[in-house]
Amino acid sequence: MTGKARVIRSPQGAHLEPGEILVASSTDPGWMPLFLTAGGLVVEMGGMMSHGAVVAGEYGSPALLAVACPSDRIMTSDFLTVDCIDGVVSLGTT
Question: Is 51 a known active-site residue?
């Protein structure tokens, strides 16, 4: 999945354009409205059975979890490729 990143630190009042890749430190049920439009997910904390992984799977969205400090390395509007096969997030790929 390739798309624009949207770094979000809190779900309160946050907006995500359809297809944008949600980049966050963690997620919980309060983030659910954002999952409806997310094209993918990159999260610092979590594993196979974490909230982000389970919900992304339900929506068929690619998700990479346990990514070291993604919200420090990725900026909103950066183009990302989320490769779930190899477990890699690539910056600057359009």
Answer: yes
- The mean pLDDT of 14-21, rounded to a whole number, is 95
Q: Are strands 21-24 and 2-7 parallel, antiparallel or unpaired?
A: parallel
Among the listed residues 27, 31, 38, 51, the single catalytic one is 51
Q: How far is CA 72 from the centre of its chain?
A: 14
3-state secondary structure of 55: helix
The angle subtended at Cα 75 by Cα 74 and Cα 78, nearest 5°, is: 90
Instruction: Please count the helices (runs of H) and the strands (runs of E) in the chain.
Output: 3, 6
The helix/strand/coil state of 94 is coil
Please state the pTM of the whole predicted model: 0.91
List the domains of the chain with CATH numbers: 2-91 (3.50.30.10)
What tokens were used for 57?
Answer: 């799977």
Q: How many Å is the maximal CA-CA distance in the chain?
A: 33
